[in-house]
Amino acid sequence: MADRSEDSLMEKIAQKIHEHNSSSSDSDDEKPKSSDPSIKSKIYRLFGREKPVHQVLGGGKPADLFLWREKKASAAVLVVATAIWVLFELMEYHLLTLVCHCVILSLAFLFVWSNASSFINKSPPHIPQVIVPEDLAVNIALSLRFEINRLLATLREIASGRDLKKFLVVITGLWVVSILGSCCNFLTLFYIVLALLHVVPIVYEKYEDKIDSFGEKAVREFKKQYAVFDAKVLSKIPKGPLKDKKN
User: Fold this and answer.
1) What is the mean predicted confidence (pLDDT) over 58-72?
2) Torsion (CA) 17, 23, 29, 33 in degrees, nearest 10
3) What angle do CA 59, 211, 75 make, to 5 degrees?
């Protein structure tokens, strides 16, 4: 009799333990998972970026070059740009002189080879006929026209005084470019921009989380300072001429 009572007692204890474990597991399943992506807060990205860096750069071959997807091509572009900058800036060579020298050497080589082919028993080189396609020229002209019209429309919108923030950003950007232009010429500035395009995107893509976190703090501080500046200065500037009072 004692053995049967002990067995029944052990069965009751085991049943209670099982019911407790099952109820706790059910309650755990009802809790929302913290790893659910819908619960996570939206991650801050610079300039409101929602696409990957590759798509922001336009995708395709230019983005592959700037992000070093094709290392040989990216290195070749950077080496050629460096060689051009060294040739024209450090060695003070001129573009028109270089073009004329290249054309002179090419014409002289082809002319001599064409006339000496009968003596060396070799056929003269085939000189291909180069013609600029009409479609290509029209497309380039249309694209250039579209970009110029968009630039003029943007400048007109800024000059109309509707967006003070955009006006200040454009004025600051032009002021910075004017300072850079006084320090270096166009070729040096173009080379600096090209070198930065080969460095900044890949560094940002590699450390985008840290850079975005720092950028978020900087944007918050900028908004705070802009609010103070707006309250103390901009809000006191009259928006336009006063309306004539009715007699």
Assistant:
1) 83
2) -80
3) 45
Distance, in Å, from the CA atom of 247 to the CA atom of 233, rounded to the nearest integer, reads: 33
CB-based contact 68:59 (threshold 8 Å): no
User: Whole-model pTM above 0.90?
Assistant: no
* Identity of the residue numbered 200: V
The phi and psi torsions of 209 (rounded to 5 degrees) equal -65, -45
CA–chain centroid gap for 141, Å, is 25
Give the helix ranges, DSSP H, for the chain: 2-30, 53-56, 60-66, 71-85, 95-120, 134-159, 164-183, 186-197, 200-206, 208-232
Angle between helices 186-197 and 71-85 (to 10 degrees): 160
8 Å CB contact between 201 and 53: yes
> Band of the pLDDT at 37, cuts 50, 70, 90?
very low
Q: Collapsing DSSP states into helix, strand and coil, what is residue 59?
A: coil
As given in the structure block, the two tokens for residue 57 are 């750069």
| Coil vs helix vs strand at 187 | helix
Query: Tell me: the pLDDT tens digits for 122-170?
Result: 776 777 788 888 998 999 999 999 999 998 998 888 888 778 888 888 8
CB 97 within 8 A of CB 104: no
| CA gap 139, 134 in Å, rounded | 9
Alpha-carbon distance of 176 to 182, in angstroms, equals 10
